[in-house]
Write a structure and sequence with these properties.
Elements: E1 8-13, E2 19-21, H1 27-39, E3 43-49, H2 50-61, E4 64-65, E5 68-69, H3 72-75, H4 81-97, H5 116-131, E6 139-140, E7 144-145, H6 153-165, H7 173-190
Antiparallel strand pairs: 1-2, 1-3, 4-5, 6-7
Helix pairs in contact: 5-6
């Protein structure tokens, strides 16, 4: 269907406060209908393609989004669409970031999940230490530097932060070198 053949609908709120859409019509007819509805004191939302209007209404009034039940207060008429969209973005972030643990995962291993903001902070802090002339020491289990335990949580956090940010975006050569050493140590310990 070409752009001139596409059908449109008008989204508006009736006098009872319920969102409605008109039947499908041409673009010119839809804009004319929107003006008529506004003249009759209806709150006109927008003119959109018929398919977009159908998706909007289904999305807006569906009891679930991606398998998560939509709270009743978000589905209520009069709630700004922006509030619902913000909730949806939160659901998307939560569902997209959840990854099942591998079957052989250690249930007692530290949680190294982090947001981009936390990863950025960790890398900036490490970079700051390097710029001041300090080479970060490994903090070993038990609170000792250079202790007997081989678990290096600090190094793991820096490596995870580098994974989250993407190593090719790290510009500082000292920080890249430090991360490369951490990677080499981790690979050496894994074999």
């Amino acid at each position: 269907m070409s752009g001139t053949d596409e059908l449109y609908r008008v989204l508006y709120t009736d006098h009872d406060g319920h969102e409605q859409v008109t039947g499908a019509m041409t673009r010119v007819q839809a804009y004319s209908r929107a003006r008529d509805l506004a003249a009759k004191n209806y709150a006109v939302g927008s003119v959109m393609t018929a398919s977009a209007a159908e998706d909007y209404m289904q999305d807006r009034y569906s009891p679930t989004y991606r398998g998560v039940e939509v709270p009743d207060d978000l589905r209520a008429d009069g709630v700004p669409r922006s509030v619902y969209e913000a909730w949806k973005r939160g659901v998307d972030v939560t569902l997209d970031s959840e990854q099942p643990e591998p079957a052989d995962a250690d249930p007692f291993a530290p949680d190294l999940t982090m947001s981009r903001e936390v990863a950025d902070f960790i890398l900036r802090a490490t970079n700051g230490l390097l710029l001041e002339g300090y080479w970060p020491k490994d903090f070993r289990v038990g609170g000792r530097h250079g202790g007997d335990d081989t678990e290096d949580y600090d190094g793991d956090l820096v490596r995870k932060a580098a994974d989250v940010i993407s190593r090719d975006k790290i510009k500082n050569s000292e920080l890249r070198r430090y991360i490369a050493e951490l990677d080499a140590d981790a690979e050496g310990g894994a074999s």
